[in-house]
């Protein structure tokens, strides 16, 4: 009996293939956990609003561009963090089967599309999301630095638009970086506490 070669295009799993594969890491946001929404939504918004308000009222003014500006400091951090996160994602995703890594995390309820996720699946989504946000923040950072002269010349005669850009630009920056930071803190909390909780005693 002859055999038929099977390729990647012949393999279908889960929902129909989407053209938005590049956005797959964002599926992390719809993973259910009783405490996760606080770190996905509430904490980033609160932190971003606090940082933005402090930036607006601070005196003397905090530099946003330049060698001593916020963009430069954040870019230095992201340049180191993003490759590390991508490498960690590859390590977890490609690691050989492990009992603890391929089991459901104890003390946690992790669901995606109504299915329970293993620890490996969740950590892959977590690292993938962090890598995505980090890359997005890095591109936004570089784009803002490069496009600043052009944007300044375009808005030079439009003071209202210029003021809006000076306020909304940092707001977007703080929102993205807050999401990045709070997700890292959630990852540390999850992997050091929730995963290692002892199962409750059943009387």
Question: What report would you give on this structure?
Answer:
There is one protein chain. The chain has a domain at 31-82 and 127-194. The protein is 59% helix and 2% strand. The chain has four helices and two strands. The longest helix is centred in the C-terminal third of the chain and has 36 residues, at 119-154. The radius of gyration is 21 Å and the shape is elongated. It starts with 35 loop residues before the first helix and ends in a 9-residue tail after the last helix.
The portion of residues assigned to helices is: 55-70%
Beta content comes to: under 5%
Poorly predicted regions: 1-14
Count of helices?
4
Distance between the termini: 57 Å
Mean pLDDT: 83
The dominant shape is: elongated
Q: Report on the biggest sheet.
A: 2 strands, antiparallel
* Strands, total number: 2
Neighbour order of strands in the largest sheet? 1-2
Radius of gyration: 21 Å
Which structural class is indicated by helix and strand composition?
Answer: mainly alpha
Order of helices and strands: HHEEHH
Keywords: Membrane, Transmembrane, Transmembrane helix
């Amino acid at each position: 009996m002859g055999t038929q070669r099977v390729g990647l295009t012949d393999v279908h799993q889960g929902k129909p293939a989407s053209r938005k594969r590049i956005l797959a890491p964002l599926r992390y946001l719809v993973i259910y956990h009783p405490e996760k929404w606080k770190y996905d939504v509430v904490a980033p918004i609160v932190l971003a609003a606090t940082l933005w308000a402090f930036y607006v009222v601070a005196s003397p003014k905090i530099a946003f561009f330049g060698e001593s500006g916020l963009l430069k400091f954040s870019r230095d951090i992201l340049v180191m963090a993003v490759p590390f996160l991508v490498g960690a994602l590859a390590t977890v995703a490609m690691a050989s089967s492990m009992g603890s890594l391929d089991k459901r995390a104890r003390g946690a309820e992790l669901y995606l599309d109504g299915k329970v996720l293993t620890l490996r699946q969740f950590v892959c989504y977590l690292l993938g999301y962090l890598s995505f946000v980090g890359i997005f923040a890095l591109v936004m950072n570089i784009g803002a630095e490069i496009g600043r002269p052009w944007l300044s010349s375009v808005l030079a005669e439009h003071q209202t638009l210029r003021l809006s850009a000076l306020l909304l630009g940092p707001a977007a920056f703080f929102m993205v970086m807050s999401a990045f930071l709070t997700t890292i803190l959630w990852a540390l909390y999850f992997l050091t506490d929730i995963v290692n909780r002892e199962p409750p005693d059943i009387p």
